[in-house]
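hey so u asked for the seq, here:
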Amino acid sequence: MQNNDFPKLHNATWPGIVGKGPDSEPPIPFDKLLEMTAAAEVNGVKFDGIDLGLLDPHINIDSTDDEIKKIADKIAVYGLNVGSLVAPIWGGPILGTENDRKTFVEMVRKSCHFGKILREHGVRSYGVIRIDSASSPEEWAKNPIKNTELIAKTFREACDVAADFDEKLAAEGEICWGGMHSWKAMVETLEAVNRPNIGFQADMSHTLLYLLGYNAPQDRILPQNFDWNDRETLKAGLKTVTDALRPWTIDFHVAQNDGTVHGTGSHDKTGRHCLATDPNGKLDVANDAGYWLRDEKGILTKAFKHICWDGCMFDNAVLTEQKTWNDILATLIKVRELHGWS
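ran it, structure tokens below
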């Protein structure tokens, strides 16, 4: 029996794009992802909505207002709402040129406008704009102090733009993004931005890699050659990371990880997303989501109105099987049963 109304349960569209393309498998069409999301059902419970990657070939960021409204209508036909949006900022790496940084901020502006039209059209009432530094840890490491400040300065400019649209920006911590590649670097970057409308997007798969110190061995929490059967040490590590980043967390991805890194196509290696049912998964997903959804006293933070499943870089054969989405929905329902509210 499902007693909780919140958080709302969302699927994501970008797994049909990320890691796909000419150097991998073909992208999964937008309409196909909508169909499978809408068709998923577990004991009468369905997905409430989707989070959108504003990425080609699904979405043209330069769509006219009328074109955006048509996209909204298409989504609404399936009985779905829209939550968070992924800004296509990778053509503007912050640690590139001044023009690159201008491109970055402009992509945030276009994404905020896209979100505004979706709101006005009645399909979006919550969610954030997701960003990252679009730059590698290797580039960042050439001058950590200067580069963190450059990232923070650009994020501040993006925050000022987002504020004009009453939007919040969420920086997703991943080991493949400079200045965001470790839990300590992520906190330092957010503190340096010092704007009220920026926060952290926690993805359970990516943040697990923070514990292992990939790309930042000095910030490793779990011991070398860690025994994954040592659940108490893992829980202590999860508590360390979540205590540091939970106060910043304004968007949340439920995910599983097997403790390894993975990349497909042109995407850099980052935390490997595993299926909810993967026997090699290292997380107790429903329980461990509580480290993000509850404070240190175990009280629900209610810091966001929806949660989203993120599963990038799976084979198309997996992503086009309806059972995959039913299993994912079942996991999200378990999270809401344990950590939700009415």
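The two ends are 13 Å apart (CA to CA). Residues 98-120 form the longest helix (23 residues).
lmk if thats what u needed
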